[in-house]
Amino acid sequence: MTPMDKPNRLLLLSELRVRDTAYNVSLSRSLLTWKRRASSPVYHPFRPMSYVERCQQHRWRCAAVTFTCPDGGLCQSWVGAIAEQLAAITSRPRRLLIYINPYGGKRQGGRVYEQKVAPLFAQAAISTHVIVTEHANHARDHLRTDAELKKYDGVVCVGGDGMFSEIVHGLIWRTQMDSSLDPNSPDETLTSCSLRIGIIPAGSTDCICFATVGTNDPVTSALHIIVGDSQPMDVCSIHHNNTFLRYSVSLLGYGFYGDVLTDSERKRWMGPVRYDFSGLKMFLTHHYYEGTVSYLPARGVVGTPRDAARCRSGCVVCQHNGPKPSERAEKYETDDCGNDGDWRTIRGKFLAINAASMSCACPRSPKGLSPAAHLADGTTDLILVRKCSRFDFLRHLLRHTNKEDQFDLNFVEVHRVVRFRFMPRHCQSDSDLELDLLENGKRQIFGQICRDHPACGCAPAYSSWNCDGEILTHTAIDVRVHCRLIKLFARGIEEPQVFEDLTNPCAI
Ligand SMILES: CCCCCCCCCCCCC/C=C/[C@@H](O)[C@H](CO)NC(=O)CCCCCCCCCCCCCCC
Ligand SMILES: Nc1ncnc2c1ncn2[C@@H]1O[C@H](COP(=O)(O)OP(=O)(O)OP(=O)(O)O)[C@@H](O)[C@H]1O
Ligand SMILES: [Ca+2]
C-alpha cells in the first residue's frame, strides 16, 4: 500500500485479487479502479462490492466484484476507506419521492419499477416514498401543495414525457410560490428548482430521458439517480395575453406535430404506435397554416443550430452560455425600460413551426428535431418549415432519421432564439387583416371565406400547439426560455471512450 497521496488525491493503492487474478487496485476520491497484474500469496476476502459498468449504447449495468488481499488489517483499511469515501459524497440522494404512472406507454410502469428499479434503490440504501398516480395531474397537484419536499433529495417519475411534464409543472410552481414570484408574468425571472428530477422511462416517446442519458433504459436511469448525477435544463414558459399556459422542455410544435398529437390522443388505446399512424395520416393530409412568428435571436452565445458539434456530457457551449448575471441583459436583449431589442418578424404559410429547447432525440429520430440544440444554454431552436410539396416535406422528415441535414432545404429555416411569439393569421388585428386582404386581392378574400366555412372541406385555419405531448388551449402564444430552471439526475450523453476499457468502475 502506498501512503495517502494528496496531490493525486490517491487514497489507497494495493495489490488485491479477484478470484485467482491479481490486480493493482486504487481508490481516489469517489473512484475505484483496478488493473490486472502478475501475482502472489494467500488472500483474505472483502465483502462483495457493487459498481457501475458501462455497456453498449450508453447503457449502464450494476456489477459486483469481491477483492481478496494477503492481510486482514489491509482488508479493514480498504473497507473503511471505501465506506468513508461513499459517505462523503453529498450529491447522492438518500430519500426519494417517486410517482408511477401505471398507464403510460405500454402500461408497464409499475412492473418496471418493482422488478428493475426498486431492488437497485434498496441495494444503494435509498429510502423511497412511492405514489402510484390515480388520475392525470395527480403528481403535479401533489407536488404543488401537499408534498413535504424538505423530506426528499429528489423526485422521480416512472412514465413518459407527459409524466415528466407533470413533475416539472408541480416543482416549478411550488418553487415560484415559495419565492413569492408571479408565474403569470412572462417577464418574471424565475427561481431554479433545487430538487433534482429522475426519469425512469416507461412512456411512448421518452425523448427527455433519451436526450439526457442516450438510451431509454430503466436500469441505466436508476443508476444515474443512485450515483447522484446532475444535469441542468432549460425550460420555456408559454403565455397567452399575459396569462401562464404551460412550460415546455422538449418540443413545442404547431402544424404537423400539433396535428399528429391531436389525432393520436383519440388513439391512446393503441399505445406508442399511435404516433406512427397519426404521423402518416397528417403527412398525407398535408395541412399548412398561416401566421406571424416574431423572435428575439440569442445574442452573445456560442453555437448555432447548424453546428456539427453536439451537446454532450460536460458541454462547453452550455458552460459558456449558462447564466452569468452580467451577461443576462445582453442575452435577452431587453431591459426594464421596455427596450425589446431586435425582434424579427416572419409572416407566412407553414407546415410546421417547431421550437426545440434540446435536441429532442428519441428512438424514432436518434439525432432529434434539432441535433445541435443544447440542454442548458438558455436558448431554443425555432424551426420554420414553410409550405412545400409532400415530396419535399417527406425529404425533410426522412432526414430526421439519417445523417443528412434536415435544415439544408430552401423551405426550412432555423434560428437560435431566447424568446418568440406566434399569432395565427385569423387572430391578427382587424387592421392587419384588412391590409392583407387589400394586398392579396380578390383571390385571397375568397380563400378566406372558404377556409372559414367548414362544409367545403378546405384546410382548417388553425392547428394546435403540441407542448411536450400536451395540447395547448391557445394558438397565439408568447414563449420565453429560462436558462437552467430545472435539474435532472443525468449527466448528458457521454462520448464513447475510445481508448479506455468499457468497464470504468464506480462503486455504488
Ligand atoms: C418517413 C419517416 C419519417 C420519420 C420522421 C420522424 C420524425 C420524428 C421526430 C420526433 C420528434 C419527437 C419530439 C418529441 C416530442 C415529445 O415532447 C412528445 C411527448 O412525448 N412526443 C410527441 O409529440 C410524439 C411525436 C411523434 C411524431 C411522430 C411523427 C411520425 C411521422 C411519420 C411520417 C410518416 C410519413 C411516411 C410517408 C410514406
Ligand atoms: N393514473 C393516471 N391515469 C390517467 N392518466 C394519467 C395517470 N397518471 C398520469 N397520467 C397522465 O398520462 C399522460 C401520459 O403519460 P406518460 O407521459 O407517462 O405516457 P405516454 O404519453 O405514453 O408517453 P410520452 O409522453 O413519452 O409520449 C400524462 O399526461 C399524465 O398526465
Ligand atoms: Ca437549450
Can you walk through the features of this model?
The protein has helices spanning about 70-90, 110-125, 140-145, 160-180, 205-215, 220-225, 255-265, 275-285, 315-320, 325-330, 390-400, 430-450, and strands spanning about 10-20, 20-30, 30-35, 45, 50-55, 60-65, 65-70, 95-100, 125-130, 155-160, 195-200, 230-240, 245-250, 250-255, 290-295, 345-355, 380-385, 410-425, 465, 470, 475-490. It is of the alpha+beta class and about 500 residues long. The protein is about 30% helix and about 30% strand. The radius of gyration is 26 Å and the shape is elongated. Strands 8, 9, 10, 11, 12, 13, 14, 15, 16, 17, 18, 19, 20 and 21 form a 14-stranded mixed sheet that branches. β5 and β6 form a beta hairpin. Residues about 1-5, about 325-340, about 430-455 and about 500-505 have low confidence and may be disordered. It folds into three domains: about 10-90; about 90-230 and about 490-495, Probable inorganic polyphosphate/atp-NAD kinase, domain 1 (Rossmann fold, 3-Layer(aba) Sandwich); about 235-325 and about 340-485, Tumour Suppressor Smad4 (Sandwich). It binds N-((E,2S,3R)-1,3-dihydroxyoctadec-4-EN-2-yl)palmitamide (16C), adenosine-5'-triphosphate and calcium ion (CA). Adenosine-5'-triphosphate binds near residues 138, 162 and 205.
